[in-house]
Structures are given as structure tokens and as C-alpha cells.
Design a protein that fits this description.
Layout (H helix, E strand, L loop, with lengths): L5 E6 L11 H6 L1 E7 L7 E6 L11 H6 L3 E5 L12 H17 L4 E7 L2 H13 L24 E5 L5 H8 L4 E3 L2 E5 L16 H33 L7 E3 L28 H6 L7 E3 H8 L8 H5 L6 E6 L7 H10 L5 E6 L10 H16 L3
Parallel strand pairs: 3-4, 3-5, 5-6, 6-11, 11-12
Antiparallel strand pairs: 1-2, 2-4, 7-8, 9-10
């Protein structure tokens, strides 16, 4: 019988910024992780990460340990709070966890970016191998050329999309005419208007995709202008402000299954697409000016997974579920194709949905794929 999970307390490299919402967490300066140990022990650790989700209880941890590797579910300083998240700080936090594991004696450490962790994990390995980023797009933020970023021995992207900014640009609702009123809509750009589809015609999709990206760029331009005006408007006392983004789950792929075809249903992680587009719990609705530029801006964010992967030298394993309703086969292929070397693997999980915790056999299958690949690394 395997032992239960252990709690790991990993010191942060830096924790002074007030973008950590909790004062207790900020003052403690600790990243909390859980570790599931393989029976008999292992010199290989797999770190599963996401920029804001709590992965301490991730469904893959126990199956990975049963497959022969130690599995760590990590959190960043932004656990449960994406509204002020700077991707560059997440990179520093991953470095803290990998350094902790190296110091703990692991010979091999593999970084696993799951879902929204995919683009951030790719950015981490890119910067660990060849650091170039000296700050966040919003100004300030950590200098990654001076951070402690030990390289991972392998990079796995599991049920992952190309990056948060790229994903949001594909899911933003372009029908909104008023950023403050999600019901003031342009019917010619409304995927929920029955006369437009589904199925959606090629002309509609071309106009729709262009309008999505244009909206993302407009918000970026507005955020830059607001940020530049803040010192004068606040007398130098405020360097960020919050705002709301409506309509963040309007990807035509959610209703038209002929686009990027797979085994998925016409749904989202948050329920029916119309509802998911507007409810508070779906992605990207609450953000700050600085966080938008770092995390959600398609033009400025550093978290572009495919771009980061172009220079990554570590082995890469991309795993995707053929029934995933949020991360599609096209996403997996985009990540896989971006890797320039041949030490890469693309593995489908037939019938796999986004959360394999509801599919125990497929969860074990995925864990076995990951563990066997990690154990075979040099």
C-alpha cells in the first residue's frame, strides 16, 4: 500500500509584491505542494503545475506514484487568484520548486504543464535553458535572467492549450459592442445568433477570428494607456487597477464540432457555451491592468507556448484527450510541431476528456505513458 501524500513547504525566491492577495501567504513566503511517493522510492520526480489552480490534489498524482515515479502537485503564489497573476512570477515559483527537489536528491525532474499550465511550463523551460526576459510586459516584475531557474530534464504538456493569452484570443466574444454591457451585441458577429450557425461558414469564421483578435488588442491598448496615466492620476500612490472582461468563452469550436474535429461534445468546462461565456467562474473575467498585459494580452504576453518551444532543447511529450472540450487536437499539434528537435512524442488518449479524474482507466493509462517516458529519459 502506498503512503499518503506529504506536504512540502517550498520557500519562494521573492514574495514582497502585494499582487499576492493574502497577507498571510505574502508574509510566509511559502509555496505549498504535495508529494506522492512511488512504492520503494524513485529518483525521478514529476511536477504538475498550473499558474493559478490548486494542483495539490491533482487526479494524476496517485496514479503517477503507482506507475513508479514521485509526483508533486505544486501551487504558485497565485493559487485561487488569477486576477493579479504575472506569468513571470509563476516562472520564478516553478524554479523554486525544481531547486527544492534537486536539493532533495532527485536525479531527474520532469515538468508537467496541465491545461493552462502548458504555455507557462513551456515558458519556464525556454527561460531556464536560455534566459532573456528582464521584466513583465507591464513594467517591473521579476528579472528572469537573474532568477534561479534550474532546467527540467523533460517537459510534458498534458491536456494543454498553447497559452492563456492565445487561448483567450480564440475564446473572446467579438459580438460585444460595449465592454461594460455583455448584452449590447452585434448580431453579425454573434456565434449564438442562430442565423450564423452552427455550422459556421468560412466567411463568418474569418470575420469572427479577426474581430476576436482586434478586441484583445483594443483591451491591451486601453490597459497600456490606463497604466501610463496612473502615476499622475494617483499622485504616484497606485500602480495597478482592477477591471472586468465580459464574454470570455465564445469559441465557435464549442458549438461547431466540424471545426478542429474530435470526439468532444458541444460543451465547455463550465457548462453550456452561452452560459460559460458570461458566468463569473469561467476564465479571464477578473483581472488587473498589469495582469492583463502579462497573462492575457495576445500581443504582449510572454506565455506563448509554441513560440517558447521553438528553442527548447529538453525532450517534450505532448498528451491530449480526443474528447477534450477545451483543449483540442489542433492545440496539441501546434505545440508538438513547434518543437524543433526530434526528441518529442505526441500521444492521444482516445476518449479522454479534459479531466481524467472522472475516467479512472484513462487516468492510469495517461500516468503510465508519462511515467514510462520520464523513466526512459537520460
Amino acid at each position: 500500500m502506498m503512503a499518503g501524500p506529504e506536504l512540502l513547504a517550498v520557500p519562494m525566491q521573492s514574495a514582497k509584491a502585494t499582487d499576492i492577495q493574502s497577507g498571510v501567504a505574502r508574509r510566509a513566503g511559502i509555496l505549498w505542494c504535495t508529494r506522492h511517493r512511488a512504492p520503494g522510492g524513485s529518483d525521478t520526480a514529476l511536477v504538475i503545475m498550473h499558474p493559478s489552480s490548486n494542483f495539490m490534489g491533482h487526479y494524476a498524482l496517485a496514479p503517477l506514484a503507482a506507475a513508479g515515479v514521485d509526483a508533486i502537485g505544486m501551487t504558485t503564489r497565485y493559487i485561487g487568484n488569477e486576477s493579479t497573476l504575472l506569468i513571470e512570477h509563476c516562472v520564478v515559483d516553478i524554479g523554486s520548486v525544481i531547486r527544492h527537489l534537486r536539493n532533495d536528491g532527485y536525479r531527474r525532474v520532469v515538468l508537467v504543464g496541465n491545461s493552462g499550465g502548458g504555455g507557462v511550463a513551456a515558458l519556464y523551460q525556454n527561460q531556464a535553458e536560455r534566459p532573456t526576459i528582464t521584466g513583465s510586459p507591464c513594467g517591473g516584475g521579476p528579472d528572469l535572467t537573474r532568477a534561479d531557474l534550474p532546467t527540467a530534464d523533460g517537459l510534458a504538456l498534458m491536456m494543454a492549450h498553447p497559452g492563456r493569452a492565445l487561448l483567450l484570443a480564440q475564446k473572446m466574444d467579438p459580438a460585444l459592442r460595449n465592454e461594460h454591457d455583455p448584452f449590447d451585441r452585434d448580431p453579425a458577429l454573434d456565434m449564438f445568433e442562430p442565423s450564423n450557425g452552427p455550422p459556421y461558414g468560412a466567411d463568418f469564421l474569418a470575420r469572427y477570428r479577426a474581430a476576436q483578435l482586434a478586441r484583445n488588442h483594443r483591451i491591451t491598448d486601453w490597459a497600456l494607456a490606463e497604466l501610463a496615466a496612473l502615476p499622475a492620476r494617483s499622485g504616484g500612490r497606485v500602480d495597478d487597477l482592477p477591471f472586468t472582461v465580459h464574454g470570455t468563452m465564445a469559441d465557435p469550436r464549442n458549438l461547431d464540432l466540424t471545426i478542429d474535429p474530435s470526439d468532444r461534445s458541444a460543451a465547455t468546462h463550465w457548462g453550456p457555451p452561452y452560459t460559460a461565456n458570461l458566468v463569473p467562474s469561467s476564465i479571464g473575467h477578473y483581472t488587473s491592468l498589469r495582469s492583463w498585459l502579462s497573462q492575457w494580452s495576445a500581443r504582449l504576453s510572454h506565455g506563448d507556448g509554441p513560440r517558447c518551444l521553438q528553442t527548447v532543447q529538453a525532450p517534450v511529450h505532448v498528451i491530449y484527450g480526443t474528447a477534450d472540450d477545451g483543449c483540442y487536437p489542433g492545440h496539441a499539434r501546434q505545440l508538438f510541431d513547434a518543437v524543433a528537435h526530434d526528441r518529442k512524442v505526441l500521444s492521444p488518449i482516445p476518449g479522454g476528456r479534459h479531466y481524467l479524474g472522472d475516467q479512472p482507466e484513462l487516468n492510469r493509462q495517461c500516468a503510465r505513458l508519462l511515467a514510462d517516458w520520464a523513466l526512459a529519459l537520460g
